[in-house]
Design a protein that fits this description.
about 400 residues; alpha/beta; Aspartate Aminotransferase, domain 1; Aspartate Aminotransferase, domain 2; seven-stranded mixed sheet; four-stranded antiparallel sheet; globular; disordered C terminus
């Protein structure tokens, strides 16, 4: 028979699916995939339940219900000082991953170049390649993950159409600084390029770090598509409600891509997210503060076990260096050992690189967006497994 699509056929199953399935198989505490293990705010859940039963379950407007588009516009103004026309500059999508795909579809023609920053969320690269565009990769280096300005400038050229950037960034929990964003903005203006800004963790920053949307910088309003996620903001990742803020002409093209992907998003969930976005400041600050406490709980526990723990300024994740534990294997072997023997699942950070063979191979990423009891159980299992492994574990992991 004739072959399937070459790119899709050769693309592996996402690392999150692989490791989550392995976690189920071995009864492991799953600190790999970034989803909370409890639901979000009760009033948002109640709004969704009530909306489901009030007789408005047919197709909503393609770009989103007016009340949610208005709530997204109001949130842009309230949190970031960005003025948005809700009728023309907001598109509601079925999750942020769809939003990313729709934005790239709206911008890219075959042969266009797209700047991507590694380590990167594993959806980015396959979508860019599916669209026939050319990825230009720039790598952040641990442990500080600072933006390499010379390398970034060299990645831009006459065929650059866009940069796809993520701040706060998964997996390395970096929050881009004002100076770094200004440097990126200058490159975009110099090369007449766009930015697709994955900002799903916009409210999840810690220790005084504050998210700065690239769109809020001078000259960037017409060059940016800014993506948010109800799943991350309200701890309801299964709802898959995302939203794009973009200048009118670009939003219209994004909407055309959206109509080819999912067309609409469940109306009861849209109405509930509109309720959530109107919540008072205490909710959003409490969300960040609560996650910071969970980060500290897990990070302190991992450090006490001997892990090298890298700074996490935002998101759901903490990156660890497992070399101090004496393991001789790579990150894939280590995470498999964690899941199968310690019964705790993490993600090998090399999975977030285009070429894992050239990536750092001694880092594992843990998610801390879990109940305290879940984090404590994971640390207890790790403690027991590390105590039991003895001197033979490094040799076993190199096999």
């Amino acid at each position: 028979m004739k072959p399937h699509n070459t790119l899709l056929a050769s693309t592996g199953t996402t690392i999150f699916t692989v490791m989550s399935a392995l976690a189920v198989q071995h009864g492991a505490v799953n600190l790999g995939q970034g989803f909370p293990d409890e639901d979000g705010p009760a009033d948002v859940l109640r709004a969704a339940a009530d909306a489901l039963l009030d007789g408005r379950n047919q197709y909503p407007p393609m770009t989103g219900l007016p009340e949610l588009r208005a709530a997204v516009a109001a949130a842009n103004r309230r949190f970031w000082g960005i003025e948005v026309d809700p009728a023309a500059e907001v598109v509601v999508t079925s999750g942020a991953t769809e939003a990313i795909t729709a934005c790239l579809m709206a911008l890219l023609d075959p042969g266009d170049e797209v700047v991507l920053i590694e380590p990167l969320y594993d959806t980015y690269l396959p979508v860019v390649r599916m669209l026939g565009a050319v990825p230009k990769l720039v790598r952040l280096e641990p442990p500080r993950w600072e933006l390499p300005r010379a390398e970034l400038a060299a990645a831009f050229g006459p065929r650059t159409k866009a940069i796809l950037m993520n701040t706060p960034q998964n997996p390395c929990s970096k929050v881009f600084t004002a100076a770094e964003l200004a440097f990126i903005a200058d490159l975009l203006q110099k090369h007449d390029a766009y930015a697709v800004c994955d900002e799903v963790y916009e409210h999840l920053t810690f220790d005084g770090w504050r998210h700065i949307p690239l769109m809020s910088l001078p000259g960037m309003r017409e060059r940016c598509a800014r993506i948010g996620s109800a799943g991350k903001t309200f701890s309801l990742t299964g709802w898959k409600v995302g939203y794009v803020t973009a200048p009118k002409a670009l939003a219209q093209t994004i909407a055309k891509a959206h109509q080819l992907l999912t067309f609409t998003t469940p109306p009861n969930l849209q109405r509930a997210v509109a309720v959530g976005l109107a919540k008072d400041d205490a909710y959003f600050q409490g969300l960040a503060d609560g996650l910071a406490a969970k980060r500290d709980r897990l990070a302190a526990g991992l450090a006490a076990l001997g892990f090298g723990v890298l700074e996490a300024k935002g998101t759901y994740f903490v990156t660890t260096d497992f070399r101090p534990l004496g393991f001789a294997g790579d990150d894939v072997a280590f995470c498999r050992w964690l899941t199968e023997t310690a019964k705790v699942t993490a993600i090998p950070v090399s999975a977030f690189y285009a070429d894992p063979a050239t990536a750092p191979r001694h880092y594992a990423r843990f998610a801390f967006c879990k109940q305290d009891a879940t984090l404590d159980e994971a640390l207890s299992r790790l403690r027991a497994a590390l105590a039991a492994r003895g001197a033979d574990a490094p040799r076993a992991l190199t096999a």
